[in-house]
Design a protein that fits this description.
There is one protein chain. The protein is mainly β. The protein has one helix and 16 strands.
Length: 172
């Protein structure tokens, strides 16, 4: 029987998300260019963009909270950007990308609320689950990352299971 680790959704902020990557919380600071009908704030984050692809996910809200039994990770950064409603992104600390027997740790997992106008840039190797709606039945988001094969050794599973037979329950 799996042991359940319960986590609560927390507000996204620079300090608490730092172990997992960077956040863009919206336009702050003075514009570097502006005109009558627009202004530009550049840059708002420092990162390299992977030579990857833009994806679009449409996710549905789970019925009874969210039970998560595993996660995936990317060898490059991954950018998550909500398009129509707020989403919840669950992450866990990265480990050694060269160790393909590694599994995510449910004890280091956190769930962050990402509002419209906010973006996260996950570090390479950050374990994560697919984002899901916060306060709606359905939400969509863009993701940008480099396409890659499934984690070697875990090719036949959708998600690499948590170590020590754990699972997560996200309360929101």
């Amino acid at each position: 029987m799996k042991n359940t680790v319960k986590i609560k959704v927390e507000e996204l902020n620079i300090k608490t998300f730092k172990p997992f990557g960077q956040v863009v919380l919206g336009p702050i600071g003075k514009p570097n260019y502006k005109d009558i009908s627009w202004k530009s704030l550049f840059p708002v984050a420092q990162t390299h963009l992977p030579q990857g692809e833009l994806g679009w996910v449409i996710s549905k809200k789970p019925n009874d909270g969210m039970m998560i039994e595993g996660m995936e990770r990317e060898p490059e950064i991954e950018i998550i950007w909500p398009t129509d409603k707020s989403i919840i992104q669950v992450v866990s600390l990265s480990g050694n990308l060269n160790d393909h027997s590694e599994q995510p740790d449910a004890k280091s997992a956190k769930a962050f609320l990402i509002k419209l106008g906010q973006v996260i840039i996950m570090k390479p190797g950050t374990w994560h689950f697919a984002a899901f709606p916060f306060n709606s039945k359905e939400a969509s988001y863009y993701f940008i990352t480099k396409n890659h094969p499934r984690e070697p050794g875990w090719k036949n599973v959708a998600w690499v299971p948590f170590k020590n037979d754990k699972q997560l329950k996200v309360n929101f």
